[in-house]
Specification:
mainly alpha, 13 helices, single chain
Length: 270
Amino acid sequence: MPAAVRLVHPAPTLAVVALSAALAAILLARSSEPLGAGPIALVALTVLGSQIAVGALNDWADRDRDRIAQPSKPIPAGELTPRTALVVAAVGLGLQVVTSAVLGPLPLVIGLAALASAVAYNLWLSRTPLSIVPYLVSFGLLPLWVAAGVQVPLDRVAAAVVVAGPFAGAAHLANTVRDFEADAGVGSRSLAQVLGRRRAFWLAWTMALSVGVLVGTAFVVGGRLSGPVLALGVIGLLAVAQGIRGPRPLWGGMLVAAVAWTSAWALASA
């Protein structure tokens, strides 16, 4: 895989962009005045720009630690220079700002707020016990950002805000537990390091599973439960539940659950 692609963390980037585009499509399908596919493409591009900026800046900020903990990454491996990483981050920022501005002032402001939270994580909070906070903030803002981008009232995604932040926080803990030894070796004091490997893992698993139960309960109470919706919900729950085997299975299961539960919401909203 090309170094420039690895620099922007392609797997989570593609997952966040795809889920954002899916959410935009769901909201537009439910809108009384459909706007066509244009806003969906712009939402995908603005989120992509943000993910590129965040991923490249993350590798730039961690370049010295990565020389010890993850020397195969593009910068410590000598495949890319720190300057190139900053250029890539600037390109991502430019893409986000331009596409958000086209969508309107509200998506521009919300998007920049989400980005600012992520930048704070990269430059400072990732190495502190507050490491989970930017995930709660940035991903909590993501549904609002998408809704604003397709000109849908923000109250329609209130439920998504409640679950997106905690689910992202659980993903953060699962990911940091995967890299526990490497982070400990460079003196990281992230929340996972403070809690300890075992506590951090159980908190991640419990948070992720709780989100699934909350989503399923909302479907039942709202009378939107059907066969396909139930099947997708169960698939997501099982994907998270099998994560009890360890942080890597949990991380993979959470990606599956995110897709399954978003698809379930799309069917339930049709």
